[in-house]
């Protein structure tokens, strides 16, 4: 059990990096006025009895800044994909043009933009809480080492300062991501 302070810090940092990666993924799902192929990642379509993401049965790309194109790999999938997109909670209205499905992004109202920025802030706060919880867990692990006489109190102080620096760096990164996403949402 006697892990070292360095291992505790490294483990906390790795977990904080994972929290940020998860936050980034959540941010891509929040709609802005611009088209983003990642927006359809949450939409699943029935493919021979199993529910799979659209990206596994079609090529999803951008036609322009406000239009996503979906090119099914099999002839019969077009109608199923179109239906799945229309029935998703994304509020999108796809249109078929032969084999190609165009998914235009409707312009967002000012009120909807404000709702989205609130959602971004909420996600950011949740990510910061996750990072702070990891800091607390790491500090508790260091205190346990001191209690079990595997580390000195001076080492504990240094370790807690290092863990705080790592935490601050991650929180700052989350704040920057929130700010960038809010700017992207509010840009008309």
TrEMBL record:
Keyword terms of this UniProt record: Coiled coil, Cytoplasm, Protein biosynthesis
CC annotations in GO: cytosol
Subcellular location(s) of the protein: Cytoplasm
Domain Ribosome recycling factor, chain residue ranges per copy: 23-186
Record InterPro entries: Ribosome_recyc_fac, Ribosome_recyc_fac_dom, RRF_sf
Molecular function in Gene Ontology: ribosomal large subunit binding
Coiled-coil features, chain-numbered ranges: 135-169
Keyword hit for Cytoplasm: yes
GO biological process, one term: cytoplasmic translational termination
Family to which this protein belongs: Belongs to the RRF family.
Role description: Responsible for the release of ribosomes from messenger RNA at the termination of protein biosynthesis. May increase the efficiency of translation by recycling ribosomes from one round of translation to another.
The name this protein goes by in its record: Ribosome-recycling factor
Lineage: Bacteria, Pseudomonadati, Pseudomonadota, Betaproteobacteria, Burkholderiales
């Amino acid at each position: 059990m006697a892990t070292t302070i360095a291992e505790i810090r490294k483990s906390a940092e790795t977990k904080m990096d994972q929290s940020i990666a998860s936050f980034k993924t959540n941010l891509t799902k929040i709609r802005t006025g611009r088209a983003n192929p990642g927006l359809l990642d949450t939409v699943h379509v029935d493919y021979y009895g199993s529910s799979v993401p659209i990206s596994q049965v079609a090529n999803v790309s951008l036609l322009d800044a406000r239009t996503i194109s979906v090119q099914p790999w099999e002839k019969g999938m077009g109608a199923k994909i179109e239906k799945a997109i229309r029935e998703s909670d994304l509020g999108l209205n796809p249109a078929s043009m032969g084999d190609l499905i165009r998914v235009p992004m409707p312009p967002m109202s000012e009120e909807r933009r404000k709702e989205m920025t609130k959602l971004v802030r909420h996600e950011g706060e949740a990510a910061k809480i996750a990072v702070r919880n990891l800091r607390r867990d790491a500090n508790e692990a260091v205190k346990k080492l001191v209690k079990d006489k595997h580390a000195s109190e001076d080492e504990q102080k240094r370790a807690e300062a290092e863990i705080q620096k790592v935490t601050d760096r991650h929180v700052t990164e989350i704040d920057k991501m929130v700010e960038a996403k809010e700017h992207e949402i509010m840009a008309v």
